[in-house]
């Protein structure tokens, strides 16, 4: 990458940070910590860049380094809840066209073994009649 290209990308990143700070305030989108300086903010892709690569203004949010690092390449909980809300309970949830996306999500989630599992590994013991 040339010095000119690097400078253009840096200027674009600064512009995006200023735009997002004007629109939503100079705060982390997750923990709501206020930034003393926008240099402390990172640009986070709301939908992980590995799943849907875009750098458009509407696909980004400001995040502190810690929150951005913890979120990594996963969906934030609020997006996941909105996606679940749109599911019709009378129709199958998984369509064949969605399987590649689910495989990519599972692969991304599998790369984070430090996170606690949502379900226990031990099966629930069956109750027996006394």
Explain what this protein looks like in three dimensions.
By secondary structure, this protein is mainly α. The protein is 38% helix and 8% strand. It contains 4 helices and 2 strands. It has helices at 3-24, 65-71, 77-85, 99-110, and strands spanning 41-45, 60-64. The protein has a two-stranded antiparallel ribbon with strand order 1-2. The longest helix is centred in the first third of the chain and has 22 residues, at 3-24. It starts with a helix and ends in a 20-residue tail after the last helix.
Separate helix tally: 4
Beta-strand content: 5-15%
Roughly how many Å apart are the termini? 73 Å
Shape: globular
What is the H/E string?
HEEHHH
Rg over alpha carbons: 20 Å
Count of extended strands: 2
Largest sheet: 2 strands, antiparallel
How would you classify the quaternary structure? Answer: single chain
Category by helix and strand content: mainly alpha
Helix content: 25-40%
Low-confidence stretches: 111-127
Strand order within the widest sheet?
Answer: 1-2
Estimate the mean pLDDT confidence: 76
Keywords:
130 residues; 2 strands; mainly alpha; two-stranded antiparallel ribbon
Could you give a short description of this structure?
The protein is mainly α and 130 residues long. It contains four helices and two strands.
Question: Any chance you could write out the topology, listing elements then pairs?
Answer:
Blueprint: H1 3-24, E1 41-45, E2 60-64, H2 65-71, H3 77-85, H4 99-110
Antiparallel strand pairs: 1-2
């Amino acid at each position: 990458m040339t010095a000119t290209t690097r400078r253009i990308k840096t200027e674009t990143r600064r512009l995006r940070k200023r735009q997002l700070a004007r629109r939503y305030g100079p705060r982390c989108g997750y923990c709501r910590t206020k930034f003393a300086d926008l240099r402390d903010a990172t640009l986070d892709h709301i939908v992980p860049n590995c799943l849907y690569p875009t750098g458009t203004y509407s696909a980004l949010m400001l995040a502190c380094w810690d929150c951005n690092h913890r979120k990594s390449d996963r969906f934030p909980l609020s997006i996941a809840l909105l996606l679940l809300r749109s599911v019709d309970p009378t129709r199958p949830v998984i369509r064949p066209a969605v399987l590649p996306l689910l495989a990519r999500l599972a692969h991304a989630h599998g790369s984070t073994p430090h996170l606690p599992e949502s379900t226990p590994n031990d099966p629930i013991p069956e109750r027996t009649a006394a």
